[in-house]
Amino acid sequence: VLDDPIRTVSGGASAKAFADGLGLETVGDLLRHFPRRYAVRGELTDLAELRVDEEATVMAEVAATKLYPMKNRPGWVLEVVVTDGRGRLKLTFFGKQKRQLEWRERQLRVGRHGLFAGKVGSFKGVRQLTHPEYLLVGDAGGAGDAGGDPDDLDESAADAAAAFARRLIPVYPATKVLTTWKIAKAVAPVLDTMGELPDPLPAPLRERHGFPSLSESFELVHRPASEEDWRRAMRRFVFEEAYVLQVELARRRARAAMLPAVPRVPAPDGALAAFDRRLPFQLTEGQQAVGMQLAADLAREHPMHRLLQGEVGSGKTVVALRAMLAVVDAGGQAALLAPTEVLAQQHYRSLHALLGPLAEQGMLGGADVGTRVTLLTGSQAASTRRRALLEAAGGEAGIVVGTHALLEERVQFADLGLVVVDEQHRFGVEQRSALAAKGVTPPHVLVMTATPIPRTIAMTVFGDLDVSTLTELPAGRSPIATHVVPTGEKPHYLERAWERVREEVGAGHQVYIVCPRIGGDDQGDVQDEGFDASVDDPDEPEGSAEGGSAPPRPLLAVLDVAPMLTAGPLAGLRLEVLHGRMPSEAKDDVMQRFAAGAVDVLVATTVVEVGVDVANATGMVVMDADRFGVSQLHQLRGRVGRGTAAGLCLLVTDLEPGTPGRSRLDAVAATDDGFELARVDLESRREGDVLGATQSGRRSSLRRLRVLRDEEVIQQARVEATELVERDPDLADHPALRAAVAVYVDDEQSEYLEKA
Ligand code: ADP
Ligand code: MG
């Protein structure tokens, strides 16, 4: 029944309206098109909540009517004012002849209640609906109250009686053609005839949790007798979403756990031991604990799939490097993937610095134990790249550092044992399988991120990874002071900011200035260099959120700000620019000179967002800071205060206090706890983005689950799902569940394709 095309219940003509307007194609889609809310018979909708341009359905009472001829043209106007007891809304109907409107006027008697649906407009500051569809509520549930044209009166009349005999009237997300009561009308016969449907939730599970069956839940959500009815049904549907997702994730984990992998047990007294001896600092307790975890994973006969999360600056690189050395000592190779070329180059340099002679085995001056660290990027000169490819394929390079270009098919490894993915939250199944194809057996995989991931996200987005966390920072780190610089209220604060920059430089330190745009010919704001913007994306432009009317000024750009500073407030300082449109040698050159202290001020885009590690940089000024996401700002400021001198981060904005954008900045200034900020971030954005589910997605399974609100549900679903998949890995005994999981996987796949 659920897979039947919707026209079997709606008729051919409205099937198109269902598909085009609401994206509903099957009977199942229709049943899962849940009411947005429920109007309560006798209770009026708060009219103050209406927003211009929205398609609204309101329960209101007729307060006044007026029928009058048009002033400048032939024709008549019927004006009806409806009220919720406080606010008012005007309904306007036009007609050529008076009698076309008279019957309506008789219908819409003062004091009658009804549902009125249409697009909210505004005329001379008064909100109104023009030619709304409406359905009057019978005084005693009586028939004959339907609105619309006289000829479809009889059609709706019977439904009106049925629908309004109930206390709770479902209000569906509707369109102009498909009013909420037309949707209810299509749903009713399905409910009446569907019988018992196959249920993706196993019966014992439903019993344990007290969930109604699928059929019963549809009945409860579409025709509730009480609030408790639909709430009970919704609890079930939310759980079902979480459960289907967790079953899929449990299956992925189970499949991954079955894959063979080469255990990598390091030979004693190899490069790892030599490295530990030359480490200039003591590993933190967290680094040691995670190191043991990784060693245990690597020694298993199944591939590791682990996420290492840790605050900015918590020292993830060293942890990863030790794991890579273990693999090298076991005779294998490791690859380190960075999200950008700048970062790949920096990793390459810092691995060399950390390893010293250990990174140059086989070369003059290299140590006996050790390996070779090779850089491989897309923009290398052909000859360099060819040599790097050979070293990877021949096995001389124990560690290959690069961007995602390493995933290309042409890159071959002699014996790839471990892949480390740095600063990437979305290293998906697809990339992992691309990698798996590179070895005889799939390599072990370690994904690292400094964006702290709340537990529920870890259980959903990363549900198929094991998670390790580094919570402490190495001792001796200095705190970063963050301040908001509100140029709206206090324009002179900006001058003070530039003075502070001069002071930092005067004290021998260096400063980043970050702008949201490159400038030149680019238009909007850029997320430079293809960082994964999906988690760190700034929210919607402030203009639209606040309904501001002034045209937005263009965002500050690197190529405009740099000359302005050189000519003015920062004259005389050694200032350079860095952005993603520069050729990669130029970027590399600037970064190297900045790292060497030959540049005082770096005006850059978000290319410096992750991983860049220059201990002497103590200051950062973020221009148009409100354009960046909370987690992104936290990442950015992690670039300063990496040494022993105190860090300073100034967030420049012209947003007024109290606006959502400004509040986010205040939150960033108020705490340096990344987990706390990840929560703020999550709360301030549409959660669909977090889960990567298209909100409007037609059948996207993740529609009702809210990762923060439903933490408990997700946890329970995970336990249940894991248990079920252990018993029935192929879901052979659970066909309805298997079908639901297939739909979810389908959606996910098509989303992935859309994004690609
Ligand atoms: P992130 O976790 O942000 O990637 P990094 O790995 O870049 O952090 O480490 C930040 C800095 O801290 C590096 O310069 C690194 O050498 C240094 N570091 C790492 N571990 C320690 C430690 N245990 N003690 C002191 N410094 C450390
Ligand atoms: Mg790092």
Structure write-up:
By secondary structure, this protein is an alpha/beta fold. It has 27 helices and 21 strands. About 8% of the residues have low confidence. Adenosine-5'-diphosphate binds next to helix 12.
Q: What does the average pLDDT come to? A: 82
Uncertain stretches: 139-158, 525-549, 686-702
| CA-atom Rg in angstroms | 31 Å
Give the number of DSSP strands.
21
User: In this structure, how is the largest beta sheet organized?
Assistant: 7 strands, parallel
Assign a percent range to the helix content.
25-40%
Strand content: 15-25%
Structural class: alpha/beta
Shape: globular
Strand adjacency order, main sheet: 11-12-10-13-14-9-15
Task: List its salient traits.
40% helix, binds adenosine-5'-diphosphate, binds magnesium ion
Provide a quick synopsis of the model.
40% of the residues lie in helices and 17% in strands.
SSE layout:
Layout: H1 7-10, H2 12-22, H3 27-31, E1 37-40, E2 55-69, E3 76-83, E4 88-95, H4 98-107, E5 113-123, E6 126-130, E7 133-136, H5 153-164, E8 168-171, H6 180-193, H7 203-209, H8 214-222, H9 227-258, H10 271-278, H11 285-298, E9 305-310, H12 316-329, E10 333-337, H13 341-355, E11 372-376, H14 382-394, E12 397-402, E13 416-421, H15 429-436, E14 444-449, H16 455-460, E15 466-470, E16 480-486, H17 492-506, E17 510-514, H18 533-536, H19 542-546, H20 558-567, E18 575-578, H21 584-595, E19 601-604, E20 617-622, H22 630-637, E21 647-653, H23 660-670, H24 674-684, H25 687-691, H26 711-727, H27 735-755
Parallel strand pairs: 4-6, 9-14, 9-15, 10-12, 10-13, 11-12, 13-14, 16-21, 17-19, 17-20, 18-19, 20-21
Antiparallel strand pairs: 1-8, 2-3, 2-5, 3-4, 5-6, 5-7
Helix pairs in contact: 6-8, 8-9, 9-26, 9-27, 10-12, 11-12, 13-21, 23-24
